[in-house]
Design goal:
21% strand; 96 residues; single chain; Ubiquitin-like (UB roll); alpha+beta; 4 helices
Length: 96
């Protein structure tokens, strides 16, 4: 089975450190799930997540995460120009 890698950035990285999780963290993910459900499983509050990168692409919380994917939770507060470069506005607009 492929290991799923989960990373967190900004203040979410501190949350992982406070829990003494390795970086990256490898949760037990045996079947596909949504990014929102994975965040819930990891006890990461939704309001602390602005976007989720899945295999290097900015996505929303409804995105499906499969075993073996590389996932990164990003909190609100990423500076303006980086948001455009990384694709945040497009993804947020798509989420409605």
């Amino acid at each position: 089975m492929a290991l799923t890698e989960v990373r967190a950035f900004g203040d979410l990285e501190k949350l992982f450190a406070d829990r003494a999780w390795p970086f990256p963290y490898h949760p037990d993910l045996t079947e596909s799930t949504s990014a929102a459900d994975l965040a819930e499983k990891l006890s990461i509050p939704r309001d602390r997540i602005e976007t989720v990168f899945v295999n290097g692409v900015a996505r929303g919380l409804r995105t499906t995460i499969a075993p073996g994917d590389r996932v990164a939770f990003v909190p609100p507060g990423t500076p303006g120009p980086y948001r455009v470069i990384l694709g945040f506005p497009q993804e947020n607009k798509a989420r409605g």
